[in-house]
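User: Hey, quick favor. My workstation is busy. Could you predict this chain's structure for me?
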Amino acid sequence: MAGITILGLGPANADLITRQAWQVLEMADEIYLRTEQHPAVISFPTSLRVKSFDDLYQQYDSFEQVYQQIVEQIIALGQRPEGVIYAVPGHPFIAETTGPEIVRQAKALEIPCSLVGGLSFLEPTFSALGLDPLPHTSLVDALTLVRGHHPPFPPDAPALIAQIYDRQIAAEVKITLMAAYPDEHPVQLVHGAGSAAEIVENLALYEIDRSSHIGLLTTLYLPPLAPATSMEAFQELVAHLRAPEGCPWDREQDHQTLRPNLLEEAYEVVDAIDKDDPAAMAEEFGDLLLQVVLHAQIASEYGEFTMADVINGIHTKLVRRHPHVFGDADIDEADAVIKNWERLKAAERKANGEEKKGLLDGVANALPALTQAQTYQKRVVRVGFDWPDIWGVMDKICEEIEEIRTAPNDAARASEVGDLLFAIVNLARWLKIDAESALRETNQRFHTRFAFIEQSAREQGRELSSMSLEEMEALWQAAKQK
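Assistant: No problem, here it is.
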């Protein structure tokens, strides 16, 4: 039986080639190598004709194109009467793109395919580090990592990053990792694992692209951050709190009982943002995240949805609503993005059988009134329902003030005051001011100034109620100056 034989050459010199693989090499007349840049090649039997695909790395711009060409050629060679022997570094199914794809295509074409395993780079790498990869070391391809903007693995577990084959890749890997890890995070570079030239370097993360030893056999070991720094660990903590052996209070909660907590934590986040306090923001975002994870855990127990459903839903929605980023749409202005967003939402409503759902129906009733009003106004503007200029808004405010003055009764006055507030919110929108934030800032200023009046009264040994309006006004003006 000819067909395709895929052979693993091990991670280093010929001493690490398995006996089975060596027997294949001794019996073969010809072998194709993904790359001839491997320490064991020099020890091959002298009668073996060696051909490699190294020239493809110069012909194509990406590894994907190179691997596609290799797979196509091996499949074609495998259909010859004599078949083909194809060898790769390490093990054919570990950190090796071409091996699994050749097997998949050969199976579909009914080409006989056999696998001769080899020692992968993992065993000598962990031996060099003196570590056991269990229970959950992440195995990461550097070439995949550099295409992203954030590490795709939990930071409270270690990671092994393969294919750090030159300084440029090391620099790009470093930049991606620094989105989650400190610059000084201690790491280890393992060069030539399993060979006589094996080196283990202890470095800070920011230094890895300065190593003079980086080459084709370089791997980066990334120790974990502190425990409890991953989303997975936090979900486990919340699930533990809800478990029979957990907290009685947490076990009693449901979506309805936690509703006030969610609102309170959201407002505390806004307060921290208003104060521009990063430490408070970090803490309050944590409290808010707890509410999200608690609701997801409760929903999981009720069979409603899971955290994976939550994340997948928002991930899918963001990709779908950003065709100018993840698709072919050509949009480069913020206003055009918003208009396209609204068209996409309308299409989603239609696809979900919600054509009759109005433009404003998705705005939460629980929003603060000013925020709800401004959200309504922003949405209707997207379809052109707006004043032609700001002077129309100004005139509307004057009109509402006059209607308050002439209102015939309390109910009418309450309605007109509401109309005035709505018009003022519209003015804020025209001025690109968030009405809710503006009023909150005013409330805070009022609180600070009135506290000054109270403090001044205490320092004078007086009760506020004994002060005249003129005295309090003088202190108010002093507070404004202060």
